[in-house]
Each structure stands twice: as structure tokens, then as C-alpha cells.
Amino acid sequence: MNRKPYNDLKTHLRLKYGEPVHRVPIDAGFSCPHKINGTGGCIYCDPSGSGFSIDSNLSLREQLEQRISLLRKKGIHKFMAYFQANSNTFAPTERLRKIYREAIIDDVVVLDISTRPDLVSDDVLDLLEEFTKEVDVILELGLQSINPNTLKAINRGHTLSHFIDSSLRAKNRGIELVAHVIVNLPWDTEEDVSEAARLISVLRIDGVKIHSLYVAEGTELARQFRAGEVKIGTLEQFLERVVVFLENLNSEVIVHRLVSDPPFEGTLFGNWGMSKIKLLNMIERKMIIEGRSQGCKAL
């Protein structure tokens, strides 16, 4: 039984697979069309497209095997191959097939593919549906906000309609979906946050990754932050928004993440100077003390 006030991923995976499953991030060398087409990319996106670094000299399979060999020594025997950096559907379908195939090695039980909602063609979904016959497949889509003005402010380069359309087409093929949401975007209101949770619930999205906005050096957001054009809210406001989001989220949606984990170096502002673990504990404690739980206000 899950004793947390929200439906956490760790518990879900243990129940589904009978043992712990560890996510292994890999970089397949994808780029992002929004960054290379002259539009500048999202204002918060760091040069790596993800906030983590991997030895680029290693092949995709070598990346996986290196990480997995270390994790096996810790007693972990099942893994998720996580295509994290940039837009992992930004390539011809046959190239995608070859890349995804390379990630299916012993004890990889999930292909986890992160991308933009405007980069999900029917051909891509057909390909992912093929792979569901061999492993579980998760498609992660960056929603970030439901507010069109916010999407423009952060230069996302897609609309809410893109997200809804991609989600519906993926669900029709039985593909597991995870939505990314940044709950403390300065341009969003608390109502925007609760409405995002309701939309995710209505669309029957399977999981969610909640992010705390951080400011990476070398980004447009960093320039705006330094110039005083953007002010990030308080820790208390962030905690409240996370809880409000969870209250309005269907209790069956799996929470894959509650806060961001910004890199130690190259971060101008991140998590109010607190560790990810401390923030997680504060969120959980707030929910328990205040008698609030995931789905308690869901429609």
C-alpha cells in the first residue's frame, strides 16, 4: 500500500514489476528543431537540452551498459532506457527505429522517450506502437503550461492544441503518456496550475512530471533574471502550487517527479538553494499536516 499522499512512481514500478526499476538517462545525439530553426528555443533550456551530461564518445548501447553494470552492483536488475536530452522523435522514422532498437538490451523493461508535442507524427506513433509488443513504452510530452500567454513568454513554439492532439492520438494507440508541467512559471496563476491538472486528468494522461523552474547560465531566462525582468516566486508559493496541482489531479495518475534537480554548476537560481530531497520532504509534510492528498479536489 502507498502511504504517501500522492501516487508516486517508485511504488508503482515496484508493484508492476515486482522489484525496483531504475531510470537510466541516455543521449542519442538528437537535437531540437526549435533551437536550430532560428526561433531561439525555450528561454529556460540549457545548451545540453536536459541539464545533465554524458560522455558523448560513448555509443548509446555503451552508455546503457556502463550505467547498468554499476547499478547491478547495487542490486538493481530492471531498467528504463530514458531518452532525455532534447527532442527524441526529431529524426526520420527508420533512424528512430534503429536508435530505439539499440536501447533494448537485457533487463530493459521500458523505453521512455521524451519529446515536444508538435513532433509526434502518426508515423512516430505507429513505430512506438510496434515497440509496445516487446517492452513497455512511455512517451513524455512537454506541456509546461496551459496558458497561451505563458507559452509565448517562455517561447515554447507550440500551442496547447498540439499537446491535446498528440495526447489523444497516442492514447488511441495504447501508448503510456507522461506530461511535463512547470508549476511556478512567473506568468502563470494558481488557477492555471489547477486547470493544467484537470486537463491532464480529462485526457487520461498516465503520469506527470512536475518541475520547479530554475535558471541556467547561458539562457535567455538568465538574461531576463539578471535584468530584473523576471522574478521567481517564493518557496512557499511553489509548495502551495505543487499541492494545489496534486489536489486537482486524478488519484490514478502516477507522479514521476515533484521537483527539478538542477545541476550544481552553471545554475544561477535553483530550488531556493535547497536540495531536491529537502523539497520533496517539505511537500509531503505539508500535504500530511494540512490533510491534503492527490485527487481530493479532482472532478
From TrEMBL:
Cofactors, names only: [4Fe-4S] cluster
Limits of the Radical SAM core domain: 16-252
Domain of life: Bacteria
InterPro entries with a match to the protein in the record: ELP3 (IPR039661), Elp3/MiaA/NifB-like_rSAM (IPR006638), Radical_SAM_C (IPR032432), rSAM (IPR007197), rSAM_horseshoe (IPR023404), rSAM_sf (IPR058240), YhcC-like (IPR005911)
Example of a GO MF term: metal ion binding
Entry coiled-coil feature ranges: none
Keyword set, alphabetical order: 4Fe-4S, Iron, Iron-sulfur, Metal-binding, S-adenosyl-L-methionine
PROSITE patterns registered for this protein in UniProt: RADICAL_SAM
Entry protein name: Radical SAM protein, TIGR01212 family
